[in-house]
Design brief:
The structure is a homodimer. By secondary structure, chain A is of the alpha/beta class. Chain A has helices at 3-6, 18-27, 49-53, 66-69, 132-150, 155-161, 171-187, 217-229, 271-275, 321-340, 374-388, 392-408; strands spanning 10-14, 33-38, 42-44, 63-65, 76-80, 83-87, 92-95, 100-102, 105-108, 112-114, 163-167, 201-205, 232-235, 242-243, 247-249, 254-256, 259-262, 266-268, 285-286, 292-293, 296-301, 306-307, 354-359, 362-367, 370-373.
Chain lengths: 424, 424
């Protein structure tokens, strides 16, 4: 490092998800010393994680090593570690491995975990889907349930093993329910001798009045029809009141199920606690129009960590990739402008639309006021997701897997491996 | 099942590796009731497992669900379970989950694990490579070592993190050493800011006088030259005397290394103990010309479980895929002949040759007396391995990954995930 480089301001970015990575890319090869810290060595393309959980894609097809993405950014160092605390007085980030990283600017983009609304004891029985490890756990449970059902003599227990409950009717819940239905009805057909996987029950439960509540009502109804055509039972207005090893307790009845997946709520990382400030509901940090945290003009919070209410609105922007990316780009540009003494940019969120897929030839897309469903929607969903993946190999491999699955209904990743094979 | 089917003889096959799967395929849709039991739900293509450990392939590309392979064999049931014991008196196999499987014919094809020659305490520090879990553990250790070196201030510890020791100069050890060298010299180049991964030391240690001792001397020498050209240090005539967290102890000196991989010895599964018979060295079960276990004319042992010395030879056949497959085909045909009262077949092993790859454009092949090395050897090795993979998608995906790696030196599976990230 030259002497002049040693005088460059330091930026620490916590988290290499969509938000943190967008900041880093904007700061690449600028007159700044940047440290990007993440607890994983890869950037994960979250929107397709449900396909890792449902044996369609492998983790490596939707993840890329962070340092590979930023290989050419000589001013950025990537550190595999996690944050323990922030000393805002001395401008230091403390890591789990005991390092202290000084910063002039700090960007908190540490993401979110699932939340059980105060019922953390449900997690053991109903894992959520945020990490690759989560996806493997869920995949192992789904595949093991069929394996155990095949050798189960007790008909009641066998039915419980063939009953899958997905809690939460947002995009992740809808996508998981559709994929589990396709595994049972198509991929597994004719492979068992004592059970008919086609007869598995897939139940999607939501406390609200409709699935995909963030979409407009017409698309909601279309998604519901698509789910039903795949044989998914949808229970709306049905809050979950209890989950244990064998049972999901609903208002007026119980469902015996060994495999429950949680897709109902998220909660931000403890970034607010690091700063010693009061967070909003879901532990999100409120930020101003510059993504600035009140009281700290050199600390920014973006993505799922933050809660940002645009001027003229009464609701925070949703916790989706598009918001995280746009906030990241903005903060990158903002820090550059500050350092160079230029006029700072203004943040304006552009909502390009939203989409969710239910299964083969089944998707709902809202695009600048247009509604697209069925095969065109599904195709658009596929093209957009391949476009946003990072790198040619991942794009190619995902496209091939989808093409092959489309032709044959085969899922190539039906392996049970790892530590936990079953709940018991 | 019809009444006549209920009278069909029962065959239990333990293990769905190359040997067990070959038996099952020969018995498909015969007048037999077959149960194939394996502790995994997939058949694993072991010869490429080292590429999962070295971030080139994903597990699903070299593994296929067993029940998918045998989908059309209506007389075969596949069970995910492990064997605990065999009651030869009552002809019952007892499983870990407590099931009892009656058999008329029993085929033991339960494979092998690595063996530390009485030093089981070394396993923690020097994992071997037999399962997908092993491969992920080794991959995590290799990738984590570079990550930890990047942030390590102590130069001695940093060097220990960048020193990789592979114990055992057989095909697995040679292939691992070459692949680790290529990761360090090529795939990781320019991605770190504080270390030069190109300067990593890769050391291959063997107690015997040469690497690839099962090949002829010329090919051995060629492999040695190929390893050296990749910058691998090869220490022959060097028995390992101790392994702990930081050190590999050799005769006259120690190597400080955080990442040690064991590729030195195998030991058969406890099948001999299930039968209550005395096993040979390495726990292998001696078998006669029909792969029959002495004293039990309805029990067969094949693959790594068995030790078979062909007539006129003084050495057992090696523990390789070709032997396992040929023994499996033979036992399948033998059981069919016995049940139908036909003339039993004779087993004759056909040795088509052996091959090992060291790296890009580097392989040694012995084929019916021909020696092939360099690019032609490497190409032949690649084509043969793709040919023997099961299913079009896996062949296609592996070929694409190799092609891409050939063009760019990129390894697409450089993710650290799972439970154990580092030793500490």
């Amino acid at each position: 490092m030259t002497n002049s480089e040693l005088a460059f301001p330091r930026v620490v970015i916590v988290g290499a998800g969509f938000a943190g990575l967008a900041v880093a890319k904007k700061l690449a090869n600028q007159a700044l010393r940047v440290t990007l810290i993440d607890r994983h060595n890869y950037h994960l393309f979250q929107p397709l994680l449900y396909q890792v959980a449902t044996a369609e894609l492998t983790a490596s097809e939707i993840a890329v090593p962070i340092r590979h993405i930023l290989k050419k950014a000589q001013n950025i160092e990537v550190i595999l570690d996690a944050v323990n605390d922030v000393d805002t007085q001395n401008q230091l980030v403390t890591t789990e491995s005991g390092k202290q990283l000084p910063y002039d600017y700090l960007v908190l983009a540490a993401g979110a975990r699932h939340s059980y609304f105060g019922h953390d004891q449900w997690e053991r029985f109903a894992p959520g889907l945020k990490t690759i490890e989560d996806a493997h756990l869920i995949k192992n449970r789904i595949l093991s349930a069929f394996e155990r059902a095949e050798v189960e003599a007790d008909p009641e227990l066998r039915q419980a093993l063939l009953t899958f409950v997905i809690v939460g009717g947002g995009p992740t819940g809808v996508e998981l329910a559709g994929a589990v239905a396709e595994i049972a009805r198509k991929s597994m057909a004719h492979e068992f001798r004592h059970i008919s996987p086609e007869l598995a029950r897939i139940i999607l439960v939501d406390a609200g009045p409709r699935v995909l509540a963030a979409f407009d009502e017409k698309l909601s109804r279309k998604a519901l029809a698509d789910l039903k055509s795949l044989g998914v039972e949808v229970l709306t207005n049905t809050p979950v009141e209890g989950i244990d090893e064998l049972t999901v307790r609903l208002g007026d009845h119980n469902i015996a199920s060994e495999t429950v997946i949680w897709a109902a709520g998220v909660q931000a990382s403890p970034a607010a606690q690091w700063l010693g400030i009061k967070a909003e509901r879901g532990n999100h940090i409120p930020v101003d129009d510059n993504m600035n945290v009140a009281g700290f003009d050199n600390i920014f919070a973006i993505g799922d960590t933050a809660s940002f209410i645009p001027a003229g609105s009464d609701r925070p922007l949703p916790g989706v990739a598009a918001v995280a990316k746009q906030q990241g780009h903005f903060v990158g540009k903002f820090i550059r402008a500050k350092v160079l003494g230029n006029k700072p940019p203004l943040f304006r969120y552009r909502d390009y639309g939203s989409m969710a897929t239910i299964g083969r030839n089944k998707a709902v897309v809202w695009l600048n006021g247009w509604r697209i469903t069925g095969f065109p929607g599904w195709l658009l969903w596929s093209v957009v997701h391949i476009y946003y993946l990072i790198g040619f190999p991942n794009r190619f491999l995902v496209a091939f897997n989808w093409f092959w699955n489309y032709l044959t209904s085969q899922r190539s990743v039906r392996l049970i491996f790892g530590i936990e094979k079953t709940k018991s």
